[in-house]
Automatic annotation (TrEMBL):
Residues in EAL domain copies: 23-282
Shown stretch of the complete protein: 417 to 700 of 704
Positions in coiled-coil regions: none
Name under which the protein is recorded: GGDEF domain-containing protein
Organism (species): Polymorphospora rubra
Amino acid sequence: AKADGRGRWAVFDPVRSARDRAKSALAAALPAALERDELVIEYQPIVATDDQRLIAVEALVRWQHPQLGRLGPDRFISLAEETGLIVDLGDRVLATACADASRWLAEFPDAQLRVSVNLAARQASEPGLVGKVSTALRRTGLPAELLQLELTESAVMATTGEPLRSLRRLAALGVRLAIDDFGTGYSNLAYLRRLPIHTLKLAGAFVEGIRGDDPVSQVDERIVDALVRLAHALNLSVTAEAVETRHQADRLLALGCDTGQGRFYGPPQEAGGITALLRGSADV
Ligand code: C2E
Ligand code: CA
Ligand code: CA
């Protein structure tokens, strides 16, 4: 047993401690990784549920680790949030996403492809946010309307005062705001009145529940139905996340979801994959 620093004794757990060591090793390596440009962005298609045309892509960060290979954000985003590095990391993601989207706009102007970028709570309440977003838009020439920022309900709830005004300023510039993982956070919807939200992204958990005709599935369908009605009553658009099967895609279309995202429509892929998709639909 070993003292945990708060005067308590913890039982030594070799598996846990190996995991913690691996985690702190990653945390220590992250700043250098950022310097060496080891972050890669993959883009996942967001398509119209009715005809599957490409409407937007979500930027999802990965870490191309020299020894460990490509690591998903679950391995390092929470570390970056704890250390504050998330702000620098987020700046990189934003700049790259705007640059790629601007290139897609130049090559495929008819597609009007939007790019959706995740914003951590810490970024949302950072004083430089409006300046950084405006700079990224100006440098890349991307129209504000083609940028969407995704915030979770808890990030929005944590945002008050000046940061809340920054989000409103961004919305006034034309940037779209989306609520990520909608339905899993607070049941308090007051933030919908405080912020000009454009889109609700329904949490994957509800979509996952749509499996067939079992009773659980019926409940999840009713929840989705109610959330879509709520969203549409407020003039918000609805994106369903984690769509994996044709059955789910069919049900979500019937329930009125506007757009969908998930392996059924297409996996996250590097920018070149999206360019190929755009080229394919431009040819037909
Ligand atoms: P998220 O924003 O909810 O992103 C959607 C996640 O669903 C992604 O996980 C995506 O790869 C995954 N996904 C795609 N298709 C399917 C499917 O058919 N079924 C299921 N079950 N999942 C699917 P990923 O890429 O591992 O990202 C995990 C989380 O990391 C994201 O969740 C987001 O919260 C965070 N994240 C990713 N990139 C960034 C970033 O640049 N900044 C910040 N702050 N967070 C990020
Ligand atoms: Ca997201
Ligand atoms: Ca999500």
